[in-house]
Amino acid sequence: MQYHLNRYDQPHQLEEHRDEWISFGDRSMLAAPFCHPKIWLAWLAIFIKFDPIIYELRKGPDIVALLPLYRQGSSLYLATDEHLDYQDIAAVSDDAASELLAAVVVQEGKRGRTLTFEKVAEHSRLHRVLTSPRLAETAAIRHRYWSMCPTTTFEVKRPGPFLDSLSGRQRKDHKAASRRLRESFPDHVVEHLSGTAIGSTSLDQAARLHRENQYRKKGASVFTDRDFAAFLERQAALGSLLVLSTLRESPDGALLAFSLGYFSGDTYYYYITAYDGALAALSPGRVLLIETLGHCADRITGSRLRFDLLSGEESYKSRWASSFYEVSRFQVIPRRLANLPRVAAYSAVYSLKGAKNRLLKWRSGGDRLPGLEHESPVLPS
Known about the structure:
Layout: E1 3-8, H1 11-27, H2 37-46, E2 51-59, E3 62-72, E4 75-78, E5 90-91, H3 94-109, E6 114-121, H4 125-130, H5 133-136, E7 139-155, H6 168-184, E8 189-194, H7 200-212, H8 226-237, E9 242-248, E10 255-264, E11 267-275, H9 284-297, E12 304-308, E13 323-334, H10 340-364, E14 373-374
Parallel strand pairs: 4-6, 11-12, 13-14
Antiparallel strand pairs: 1-2, 2-3, 3-4, 3-5, 6-13, 7-12, 7-13, 8-9, 9-10, 10-11
Helix pairs in contact: 1-2, 2-8, 6-9, 7-8
């Protein structure tokens, strides 16, 4: 049976196919829950300044691969790349995904466009396709290191509290932080909201806390863009696997800390977090994180809870991480005579950036998070 390629670039087309794409995403094995069509459909609906281009590959009446893109100038980018740590391609197999991506390269190459994949996790199907011989037949592909994602896996001991699964040092730190928090806020409460239970009021409070405490970090708060909270709210409305955990000084009281993540199968993905900087001595963020991990541990079906801290090499992650995987940036340039200067330019730039990364590693005496094992690049369940 022949493959058939469809291209959709009108907002009403996205709405018409939404339910079918979401259903297909439910049946696909994706690198993370935030790679699901529910997420990029929510993103494209909120950030309407982007021109969406959705490609689907069908075999007979059935979808076999799906790729969400948006256009800026002469480049195509993967939807959500500005706001999520990485993306993936939904497909029934690597062969179907390769067939789709190769066809997209040919189609868009005729329009003089290249494809940029800003963040590709090494365990994703997208990474396998981008490094496959099939795609190399139609495109010149250049890639470089972008970031690393620290991880760890807890052996959950049952019966008993999740605290028993932590190291002695982590238990000691948590007990000390909990004691300080109880002394200052004896009526504090922790709440976990998932999917459609996440309301706009809770998200607005989390956004305010994040903006007010971003002064301790580089760059502006992601919530400076008011559309970002709307993006999260739309995800929740679509029933995504988003989890909002909050720590309040009392029921209905002021927000002391929050963490926003995704929980699927046996993995909790630590996405966005913030706490009241004036209360740093009480370690509210540490208390909330362990409460959140315990909440997830109670819901796994096996005995292992994987904790993915997502992109970033902040030193605090070394207290948790035991392994890591890499995220890379890929540039895909259709094989056309007119694109030879682009290929040469990207080859030179990526080589220089690779040399810079090696030099910085040498000057710092090694990785910023030393001693981590390279996590096996197996697609998470």
